[in-house]
Structure formats: structure tokens, C-alpha cells
UniProtKB/TrEMBL annotation:
Monomer. Residues 250-285 form the FPG-type domain. CDD domains: EcFpg-like_N. This is DNA-formamidopyrimidine glycosylase. The keyword Lyase applies. It comes from Candidatus Magasanikbacteria bacterium RIFCSPLOWO2_02_FULL_44_11. It catalyses: 2'-deoxyribonucleotide-(2'-deoxyribose 5'-phosphate)-2'-deoxyribonucleotide-DNA = a 3'-end 2'-deoxyribonucleotide-(2,3-dehydro-2,3-deoxyribose 5'-phosphate)-DNA + a 5'-end 5'-phospho-2'-deoxyribonucleoside-DNA + H(+); Hydrolysis of DNA containing ring-opened 7-methylguanine residues, releasing 2,6-diamino-4-hydroxy-5-(N-methyl)formamidopyrimidine.
């Protein structure tokens, strides 16, 4: 599932491509992808322009007039922008990205006057697009917790949340109502960076551990955004943007391999909060 760094990468890329360009056609190939939309996409987007691409957690919010097109990629959603055979794609990994689009996974096609086309693809079909009012958008955004890469993510707020919760760290990090945008990959990497076990109860962390945990959260997510996330594909737009956080992963998907930090233990994996969780029993306490 695309997490904060991957969705932020898409946001930054899309901003450079689709803003202030007239939308000339919108096709919804699968009605269920827009079932919760307040307004019809073809009727209300055609002839308009996106003026900003915002994000809260893993949710993209494209401003169009006074309304917002909300796009959530969920498990396997992908946004693929193509113009003059140059591709920008983000979201779920692209082991089998078919450049002949649309394909059987295409849900929505948005065509721009400048020749650019934005495809919303989704293999597992959990993602959605909704066109809503500004008030609805605000209401939805308010259900998200603190954004880790903004000024509202202070040590004080972070430690307040941790001190009040008996839940295990893995579950706390995954809960979008506390901290927005963190999913399975970065939850595991943050716990490792902070040297705490993901099954520790949040309120048992010492102040020193809480500080380390706070700094680890900022460090991991900032670095992942800089390297354009972990699931970003190889299809770049020819502007030389490259990079991948995969090579920096220390625990995620490394079960059975030697810990890169202590070089003593193997990385273990067990199910926590319903998700496969990776950690080093030597480095993390
Ligand atoms: Zn280790």
C-alpha cells in the first residue's frame, strides 16, 4: 500500500504536470470507483482545471474550483500520467505496468487539453475517487491525526499521544487517527530506527525512548520522501528524477536476513496489529 512518502511523491509530481491545464474529457470505466462521490466526475470536471494538489495522510485532494477530487489509492491504486510518451507513475509497485493504457485495471481516465492523460488504475479495487464540496473535504481531513512532516508534529503532541495510550506501538503508528500517513513499511522502519520493539505498549516508553521515537519518525519519513518512497516504479519522466528508499530498508521485508544495524541477529517477523511486522530482537528493546 502506498504510504505517506509514496503519496507525497505523487503529489509533488502531479503538481508539476496537471495544474491549471483544462480538463477536456473524463471517463469513468468502473462506476464503483466513484460510488461515494457527491458529484458526477464527467459532468463536473470537464472544462475545469485543477488548481492545487493537497494531501492528508495517504489521501490526495485535488482542488478544482470550490470542490475537491479526493483520491485514495488504498492497497493497489496507481496514478499514471502520460504525455508525449513520457510517464510519471506512482502508488502501488509496478512489476507489470502495462504502458498500453487503458488496461483492464483502469478505473478512470482524465484527459487534459495539453495532451496529458491521467489514469487511475487499481488492481484490487479498494481505491476510490470522490468529488466533494470544500466543507466535506474539511470534514474528512479532520478525521486524520497529526501530519508527521508538518509543523503541527511537535514533540509535545507526539509524547502526549504516546503517554495516553496502552496500545502497542505498531498499532498506534498504523492508526490514521493519531498520526496520518504511516503504514506497514514505515511503522517497522521507525521502530527499528528508534530501537524499540513494535509490541511495546506506547505508555511504557521512557522519555529518552519517546524522544528517539519522535526523531526516528521524522527522520525515516523525511528520508523516504527524499528518495521518492519505497514502492515507486522505474518508469520515470526523463527529468532525471530517480531514487528509491528500498535500499535503505533495514527490517521491512528482510525477515531471515542479517540485521544491518547490529550485524548479529537475523531479522524476525511476526504478526502484530494484524500485519506482518519485522524487527531485530537484539537492536530493539
Ligand atoms: Zn540488530
Amino acid at each position: 500500500m502506498p504510504e505517506l512518502p509514496e503519496v507525497e511523491t505523487i503529489r509533488q509530481d502531479l503538481r508539476q504536470k496537471i495544474l491549471n491545464t483544462k480538463i477536456v474529457q473524463v471517463k469513468v470505466l468502473r462506476e464503483k470507483a466513484v460510488r461515494s462521490s457527491t458529484f458526477s466526475l464527467p459532468k463536473n470536471l470537464t472544462g475545469k482545471m485543477f488548481s492545487e494538489v493537497e494531501r492528508v495522510g495517504k489521501l490526495l485532494m485535488l482542488k478544482v474550483g470550490e470542490r475537491y477530487l479526493l483520491i485514495h489509492l488504498k492497497m493497489t491504486g496507481q496514478l499514471i500520467y502520460i504525455k508525449h510518451n513520457k510517464i510519471i507513475a506512482g502508488g502501488h509497485s509496478f512489476p507489470a505496468l502495462n504502458t498500453q493504457l487503458p488496461d483492464k485495471h483502469t478505473q478512470i481516465i482524465i484527459t487534459f487539453k495539453d495532451g496529458g492523460i491521467l489514469y487511475f488504475n487499481d488492481m484490487r479495487r479498494f481505491g476510490y475517487a470522490r468529488l466533494v464540496t470544500a466543507a466535506e473535504k474539511e470534514k474528512i481531513a479532520a478525521t486524520y491525526g497529526i501530519e508527521p512532516l508538518t509543523s503541527s508534529f511537535t514533540y509535545q503532541k507526539f509524547s502526549e499521544v504516546l503517554n495516553q495510550k496502552k496500545t502497542i506501538l505498531k498499532a498506534l503508528l498504523l492508526n490514521q487517527a493519531y498520526f496520518a500517513g504511516i503504514g506497514n513499511i514505515y511503522a517497522d522502519e521507525i521502530c527499528h530506527e528508534a530501537r524499540v520493539l513494535p509490541n511495546r505498549r506506547a505508555n511504557t516508553l521512557t522519555e529518552a525512548e519517546t524522544k528517539k521515537f519522535y526523531n526516528a519518525t521524522k527522520k525515516i519519513l523525511t528520508k523516504a520522501v527524499r528518495y521518492r518512497g519505497t514502492t515507486f516504479n522505474n518508469y520515470l519522466d526523463g527529468e532525471g528524477k530517480k531514487g528509491n528508499f528500498v535500499s535503505f530498508l533495514k527490517v521491512y521485508n528482510r525477515d531471515g536476513l542479517k540485521c544491518k544495524t547490529c550485524k548479529k541477529s537475523l531479522i524476525h517477523k511476526k504478526t502484530l496489529a494484524g500485519r506482518g511486522t519485522h524487527y531485530c530482537p537484539v537492536c530493539q528493546r
